[in-house]
Amino acid sequence: MDELDADPAVAERRDEADPIAGFAERFHVPDEQIYMDGNSLGPLSDDAERTLDRVVDEWRERGIEGWTEGEQPWFHYGEHLGDRLAPLVGAREDEVVVANSTTVNVHTLVGTFLDAADGDAVIVNELDFPTDHYAIRAQLRQCDLDPDEKLVVVESRDGRTIAAEDVVAAMDERDDAGVVFMPSVLYRSGQLLDVERITRAAHDRGLLAGFDLAHSVGVVPHDLSAVGVDFATWCSYKYLNAGPGAIAGLYVNERHFGETPALAGWWGHEKETQFDLNMTYTPADSAGAWQTGTVPMLSAAPLEGSLDVIHDAGIDAVREKSLELTDYLIELVDDELAAYGYGVGTPREHDRRGGHVALEHDDAERISLALRDRGVVVDYRPPNVVRVCPSPLYTSFRDVYDAAAHCRDVVETGEYEAYDAGDDVT
Predict the structure, then answer these.
(1) CATH (residue range 50-311)
(2) Would you tell me how many other CB atoms lie within 10 Å of the CB of residue 319?
(3) Helix/strand/coil for 344
């Protein structure tokens, strides 16, 4: 790999001055890799491994008594992890719980609040991650509503971003709207939406506002309670680094406690009488009501340790470094990669940018494959995006420099042309 025209010493000096650079030592990034895919799956940390091992040991040594006698008793584990997540999303402890998967949480939350809302249409956008639409359409069908009529899809003006004013316009245009459900960050372009503006506009019009925080939790601070967001969900295997298929999380504003969840299950029953095993469901007076089945301890335990890392670093420091890393990557694209057909599809303003950068190129798919074989782990999203995520806890400025150099090399040498579009790039 040849160096860029930019001075690599600049990156190295920034690494030396980085106050959270040392956190990389707590992670296991695969050898010989520049790992730029943490917005899909974060790597293992010593901390996540430690808490997983502890729960395995408790299972071995205590058996069923782990539910009541574990270091963190399993019976209350979802609530315990919710308490620890609450500061990252700006919520009260009882407004957050870990439970289910993200898609299951979209089902239960949208189903619940569609029933509670004054209207029966749900406003989404055309750049959403598809699972959100799958789940919402299914919930509309459960209500004997036609998804083609009641799923209101806000269109993008440029194929990359969603304008907040267009979301507000959709609220005004549909007098049957009851819920608006948006991502905090668009999964393809990395645009950070204005959660406060959308929530305020929804409430001014009598709508409920929910958000999918999958691409922001753990890298962007949130203030859900103060903003008044009604509900939200997220996964924990991206920036939270809790492992493949790790348990998801959810938030419900305290003013909605007492609503009956659309997917009620015994683990959401009030804890005090849960083992009375009554046939009448009594929901917990907290976000815990939106748990369905028993907490899956082996997919929840790594989150406990991974949260130690984030709390030790501080979410504000994580956000600051994330913006600095993505600023640097954008600068390298502009100065070094534009001549090779690359462009930036991510908003440049800090208040409109999440944690990754969308590199646009006509041959993005084949470039992604070539980069993977060079040990630069990125992913491809149709039609033309190489997603590059310099996740701040374990990525250095020199990593960003080297990744950009590889991006240049695979095009300059024509290396990407040896690959066929359609091969697997997850």
Answers:
(1) 3.40.640.10
(2) 18
(3) strand
Q: What stretch of H or E contains 151? A: strand 151-154
| Omega before 130 within 30 of 0, i.e. cis | no
Return d(Cα 277, Cα 285) in angstroms, integer: 18
pLDDT for res 422: 76
Write out the residue limits of the CATH 3.90.1150.10 domain(s) in the chain: 8-32+314-418
Name the 3-class secondary structure at 175.
coil
Picking from 390, 387, 412, the residue whose alpha carbon sits closest to that of residue 402 is 390
pLDDT on residue 31: 87
247 touches 267 (CB < 8 A): no
The residues that are catalytic are: 129, 212, 237-238, 387
Taking CA atoms, 328 is separated from 10, 14, 404, in Å, by 10, 10, 10
Rounded Cα–Cα distance for residues 234 and 212 (Å): 6
Q: What gap in Å lies between CA 408 and CA 114, rounded to an integer?
A: 48
CA gap 260, 103 in Å, rounded? 18
What is the mean pLDDT of each successive set of 10 residues along the chain, which is 426 residues long? 87 98 97 95 98 98 97 98 98 98 98 96 98 98 97 98 98 98 98 98 98 98 98 98 98 97 97 94 97 98 98 98 98 98 98 98 98 97 97 98 98 96 66
For helices 164-173 and 195-204, the axis angle rounded to 10 degrees is: 20
> What is the distance, to the nearest Å, from the Cα of residue 201 to the centroid of all Cα atoms in its chain?
23
**What is the Cα gyration radius of the chain?**
22
**pLDDT at res. 318:** 98
- Residues 122/150, Cβ–Cβ less than 8 Å: yes
Give the pLDDT of residue 424: 61
In angstroms, rounded to a whole number, what is the distance separating the alpha carbons of residues 179 and 208? 5
Amino acid 426: pLDDT: 60
Comparing C-alpha atoms, which of 131, 127, 267 is closest to residue 186? 127
| CATH, range 8-32+314-418 | 3.90.1150.10
pTM here is 0.96
DSSP string, 241-271: ---TT---EEEE-GGGTTPPPTT--GGGB-G
